[in-house]
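User: Hey, quick favor. My workstation is busy. Could you predict this chain's structure for me?
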Amino acid sequence: MEPTTQQKNDLVELTEQTLILEKLWAQVKDDPDAAEHKPEVKAELDEVYGLLNKVLGLIVQELRYSHLQSRWEDSEPLWRMEKITPKIRETVWYNLHLSAMLGQPITLS
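Assistant: No problem, here it is.
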């Protein structure tokens, strides 16, 4: 099922938001002076990751791929997302999922 123009635009916007939040998280996560901002940034990042995971889950379901990425024979679900929003490749989220597909554990810290 082809996503609508609005859905594509939403995914592009979500990707941009993810990139911004990942950069912000990289700045505050180990900065003791930013301690008060960490929970807010982490919560926002978790929220956008959750939305990206839902989109990926819908694509996986449509393609009838296993929900276990380590069982994927290729990265078609991720490629489908990349086709809509090429910048998704720049995200930590994308690279973690690509690693999981290759059998490496996902760790967010």
